[in-house]
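Running this now, will post back.
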Amino acid sequence: MKRRTFLKGAVAAGLGSTSLTSLARAQAGRSTLMKFVPQANLSALDPIWTTATVTNNHGYYVFDTLFGADMDFKPQPQMAERHEVLNDGKTWRITLREGLVFHDGAPVKAADCVASLKRWCQRDPYGQLLAKVVEAWQVVDDRVFEIKLTRAFPTMLEALAKVDTPPFIMPERLAVTDASKQVTEMVGSGPYRFIPGEYVSGSRVVYEKFAGYKPRTEPASRNAGGKIGHFERVEWQVLPDPATAASALMKGEVDWWERPLTDLQPLLASNPEIRREATDTSGRMAIMRLNHLHPPFNNPKVRQAVRMAVNQEDYMQATQGDDTTLWQTCRSLWPRGTPYYTGEQEDLMPQSLDKAKAALAASGYAGEKVVIISPTDFPDIGPLGQVTGELLQRLGMNVQMADSDWGTVVQRRGNRESVEKGGWSIFHTTGPAVGWSNPALSLLVRGQGAKGWFGWWESESAEKLAEEWLYAADAAGQKKAAVALARLALEEVATIPLGQFVIRTAYRKSLTGMLPGSAPYPWGLRRA
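Update: finished.
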């Protein structure tokens, strides 16, 4: 509670020096400029290489997609002009719209799309399912390409239109880069250009409106429709200190703070010039991810002991505060409100320290070090690591906290070595509920091992269930496979869910055109 009191006091002190004159100066000349405070530092630029949400959000500025999902999650053409399904569903022919160009002036061609899709398929769980049945990627001409399959892929459009970590299209010269290596040159065909000369990791990211962008004529809807940028320039101001970010928003020095600290929401609500809004009503999931490659969590019994000890209320209160209208428990790997959530699984997550201690004693745990990589600059994630550290110490485990900035966590979690060689045992993160809502989308339940997400859980049974879901004859068959998959993943502790919450973003009322969805989309926004 002292932390919350301090933050409120720090913000109030900062506001004490505000004057109408300074506010006017802050707003002067801002009709073509928007200042945005992102959830975290943008340390990794390649949205195919990493699943970091902040990088996904950056990707939406720079890149475009062949298809997008509207507010009803129905796939709509985006860069594509049309598509044809031939040969009993085993050939997809996609035609690009005319006049699409990259930020470097080069025309967007079918070869760029083919290379981009192939790279995306190396990393994305949906893409990996697609790649299993791709016989050939064929360029027909500059605007047309075909995807030839060994069997019909019933959710092709849903895969290409996914809203979280979508298949962004980049130039072929960049897309041929192996997906395990980062692309650092940011050239896309999206509504905004990344300005590399003004990028300072940990401080600032700058985008300028791309004059050559050709928006669709349909109204914008989620990541589909007309992505019209009204601001000539957008500056991301990286402000990891919540008090500083709140003060900047209250003073009008920034226009939009993506994720205000829950403790500071009442203070923001007191300002008549600030609007707070839950633009993603489905919310986000908080999770704990364990490293399956090395001791102690290569032992499933040790993983299960940790799962039994987790009390989700502790995690939610630490990150989201005491307002239970903003968070709820979710002891399932299918988020609440999504099609395959069937209720809490108290038998697997009894939230009992005594049961967990008994399970750990019987597991064969030999005191191996547990290294928790945790960010100090991310209020929605950092406290999760602190709660886990205290919990595992109470269990009797040998815990070491490795605190750093979020960018370092993002980089380090890709290290597959042991903790003695710079590896890790546990990290925490959050993700959109809609992005983790079925077996093709969710990284949390997939068992691809070395080809999968950080933690590298391997399960042939899980992969068979994912394919069973994909090719099921009806909705009942899909639900049966999905429920079984989530149960298996929680039993084997692929991921431990920590609760589900909703974020109220905050922005100046002079900013209009805010779109709902799971990302802070820049299109449609303008200053009143």
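The first strand starts at residue 33 and ends at 37. More later if anyone needs it.
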